[in-house]
Design a protein that fits this description.
With 300 residues, the chain is α/β, with parallel strands linked by helices. The protein has 2 domains: 239 residues, TIM Barrel, CATH 3.20.20.70; 55 residues, Alpha-Beta Plaits (2-Layer Sandwich). The chain has 11 helices and 13 strands. The chain is globular, with a radius of gyration of 20 Å. The structure holds iron/sulfur cluster (2 copies). One iron/sulfur cluster binds next to helix 2.
Length: 300
């Protein structure tokens, strides 16, 4: 039996997760809790239950089957999450897809059989496989086995990471990774802790060590209005990036609030409700800051 790990999705024909056409494998679990996270279902290191009220027809089937008696029906189906043990029975029962369990255990062989189906697309487009999340480095043994399997099949690999892991972990995986998509969020440490839940010291140190060790890196910056889009932060980010070798470019990722419904489905509060996406002019102003520092930059 090959190594197993927990993922929450495998996305086919991805075109924004590295070069060419790719299959992206999303790992469950993340040590950060960014307020703008667009995959909040991936943050817990275990499966999580999602309930989408707009798909619920109040049939009551879930109430009947829940072994924990965690569900009540009163105008809508609600779940006492302190009783729920995420057994998934309600999700299997709900024929409307209103209930869904995110996060499931898979083996390396199972992931690879999915990934290998699209080999002709990778070959034709210069694509390959991307490991994202969540934070893939959190399950580094599983990731290592997947990377080795990809190497055996000559599939190019990308890892999309927050960079929050022991350097020894990153260093042990480096040789199997063609490109890192490395997130850089906020340069000021106090603000980084405030908005992501962790310090940026390890992240910045890993980014420098990775670059100096010769890994190819695209730095990704999520542009969050009112949080990290100020000139001071973007200039400081650009100057830090410019001081590093082996940076292939900078990708600014525009903010959107499409994840708000996921927070609701998880019974979590979306803290950026009042935040609106940038206009084109604001995005271009951000781009110029990086161009002035002679960095290759694009918006995604
Ligand atoms: S089984 Fe699905 S559709 Fe029926 S009440 Fe439960 S959540 Fe709603
Ligand atoms: S996942 Fe299991 S315990 Fe949780 S609400 Fe559904 S049936 Fe009940």
């Amino acid at each position: 039996m090959s190594e197993t790990g927990m993922i929450f999705d495998i996305k086919k024909y991805a075109i924004n997760d590295g070069p060419g056409i790719r299959t992206t494998v999303f790992f469950q679990g993340c040590p950060l809790a960014c307020q703008w996270c667009h995959n909040p279902e991936s943050q817990a290191n275990k499966p999580v239950l999602m309930y989408r009220a707009n798909r619920c027809v109040l049939c009551g089937a879930c109430v009947e089957v829940c072994p924990q008696h965690a569900i009540t029906l009163d105008g809508f189906s609600s779940t006492d999450r302190s009783l729920c043990n995420t057994c998934g029975v309600c999700a299997e029962t709900c024929y409307n897809g209103a209930r869904e369990l995110s996060g499931y255990q898979v083996s390396v062989d199972e992931v690879m059989s999915e990934v290998l189906r699209d080999t002709p697309f990778y070959e034709g487009s210069g694509g390959g496989v991307t490991f994202s999340g969540g934070e893939p480095l959190l399950q580094h043994r599983f990731l290592l086995e997947l990377l080795r399997a990809c190497r055996e099949h000559e599939l190019p690999t990308v890892v999309d990471t927050s960079g929050f892991a022991a350097w020894e972990v990153l260093n042990s995986l480096r040789e199997y990774i063609e490109l890192f998509l490395f997130d850089l969020k906020i340069m000021d440490d106090e603000r980084h802790i405030q908005y992501t839940g962790v310090s940026n010291r390890l992240i910045l140190s890993n980014l420098r060590q990775l670059a100096e060790a010769g890994s190819a890196i695209t730095v990704r910056i999520p542009l969050i209005p009112g949080i990290n889009d100020d000139e001071e932060n973007l200039r400081a980010s650009g100057e830090f990036i410019r001081s590093l070798p082996n940076i292939c470019g900078v990708e600014l990722m525009g903010y959107h609030d499409l994840a708000a419904a996921k927070y609701e489905a998880l019974g979590l509060e979306y803290q950026l409700k009042q935040v609106s996406a940038h206009g084109k002019d604001q995005l271009l102003r951000s781009v110029k800051i990086f161009e002035h520092l002679c960095l290759q930059v694009k918006i995604s």
